[in-house]
Amino acid sequence: MAALRPADLLVVRTSGLAAAAIRFGAALTGAPNISNHVVLAHHMDAQGRWWGLEGRPGGVGWADLRGYLDSNWTLNNILQPARPDAGRQRVCDAALAMLGTPYDWDAIADDTLRAFHMHDLWSKDWGGKAPGHVVCSAFTSYLYHREGWARPPVADRDTEPADWDAFIIQNRYSQR
Question: What's the whole-model pTM score?
Fold first, then answer.
């Protein structure tokens, strides 16, 4: 994927029970259930490997993107317009500043309730402030929102991988 650039997103399918549960929850709501994780591309190292930042249960951390880039399931937003180099740098810098930000378990519980068409019990937007806890899809939505870039039409904290799937597919932003 030669066209990948810093601040592009990879919306990916991973394995395991939690990953399957996220996709199942998306299917229950009628949303695309292709992916269960979102990663922000950050930089390519001297060996030509892409590295990204992702929200995960251990907190925001680094991810080697090779496995994601090799998957036939991976969507990306490479073709999304209006993301100049200076903005890409600001998004990557903001993502880097969030390294170690804890996982948002309340948001996971809220996502689960929404999948079963139940009330939002804990969902609250961050009110323009940097979040103290994030999940992968909310992390990337917050960063894009902060820069003023188009993103799924959902409150940042409520953004799920399925929202990124729908946004990318509907706008034809993905490139193989």
Answer: 0.85
Q: Could you tell me the CA-to-CA distances from 171 to 80, 122, 148 in Å, in that order?
A: 8, 30, 17
3-class secondary structure for 68-83?
Answer: HHCCCCCEECCCCCCC
Q: Which domain covers residue 152, as residue numbers?
A: 9-171
Domain annotation covers residue 105: yes
Total domains present in the chain: 1
Of 99, 89, 93, 163, nearest to 134 (Cα)?
99
**Closest CA relative to residue 73, chosen from 116, 39, 120:** 39
Segment 37-92, tens digit of pLDDT: 999 999 999 999 999 999 988 889 999 999 999 999 999 999 999 999 999 999 99
CATH label of the domain that carries residue 59: 3.90.1720
